[in-house]
C-alpha cells in the first residue's frame, strides 16, 4: 500500500510539474509577443523619421523590415526562455521525486565540499553564458538566420542554445560560440553598407573619357528600375581617387542593404562600358 501511495504521489508531482511548465511556456510566449509588438511600435516611427521614404522601402524589400526582425527576435527569445523553464521545472521535479522516494540528498550535498566548490566555479561560467545569451537576444543583437561575426568567427546563426550559439560558415564549417566569450559582435543582416567600388584603368587612358563613361554608368544604374529599388540613395561618382605610373583608379560609391549585389553590378557595367568606349 505504501508503494501505491508513493507512485500516486510521484504521478501527481510529475503532472503538476507539466502543468506548471505549460502555464509558464504559455505566459512566456504571450509576454514575448507583447514585448516585441511594443518594441516594433516604438522603433518603426523613429526609423521612418530618420530615413527617407526610399530608404524605408528598400530596407523593407531587402528582408530587413521591422516586422520580420520583431518576429525573428520573438521566436529566438521564446526558445531560450522555454529552455530555461524546462531545466528549472525538470530539476524541481527530480528533487521532489527523490524526496518522495525517501532518498535524503542532504548528506550527499553537505559532504561534497570540494566537489561543490569545483561545481560552483563551473556553474559561474555556465550562468555567465546563459545570462549573456539572454541579453543578446533580448536586445535584438542577432537572431536565427542572421549572418554575424563573433570575435573572428563568421557564419549564419543556425541555433541559439542556453549556453552556445551554433554558426555555419560559408565553407560549410559549423562553429559553436559560447555566449559569455562574445565581447564584440557584428551583424551583417541589419542595416546597410556603403561601398566604394574601385575601377582600375591603364594610366594611358583618357581621364576625361573614363570620367564621362563612369558618370553615365552611375546614372544608368540609378534609372534602372531593377537596381533603383536596391539602393538607399543614388550612386555617387567620386572621380579619380588614386593613380601611379601604371594605372588610375576611379571610384563609385553605392549605399545599399547587405548582400544586395549592387557593387558587383557596378563593376560589370563599368567594365562593359569602358570596353565599348575604347573600341
How would you sum up this structure, described in words?
This protein has 279 residues and is of the alpha+beta class. It contains 8 helices and 8 strands, in the order αααααββββββααββα. The protein has helices at 2-50, 53-61, 66-100, 106-111, 113-138, 207-223, 225-228, 262-278, and strands at residues 147-150, 153-160, 164-168, 174-178, 185-187, 192-202, 236-243, 247-257. The strands form 2 sheets. A 5-stranded antiparallel β-sheet has the order 4-3-2-1-5. A 3-stranded antiparallel β-sheet has the order 6-8-7, covered by helices on one side. A hairpin with a 3-residue loop joins strand 2 (153-160) and strand 3 (164-168). Helix 1 packs antiparallel against helix 3 (66-100) and helix 6 crosses helix 8. Residues 42-50 have low confidence and may be disordered.
Summary of the model, kept short:
With 279 residues, this protein is α+β, with helices and mostly antiparallel strands. The chain is 58% helix and 20% strand. The protein is elongated, with a radius of gyration of 29 Å.
What's the main sheet like? 5 strands, antiparallel
Outline, from the CA principal axes? elongated
Distance between the termini: 101 Å
Number of strands: 8
Sheet-strand content, in percent, reads 15-25%
Overall average residue pLDDT = 78
**Roughly how many Å is the radius of gyration?**
29 Å
Number of helices: 8
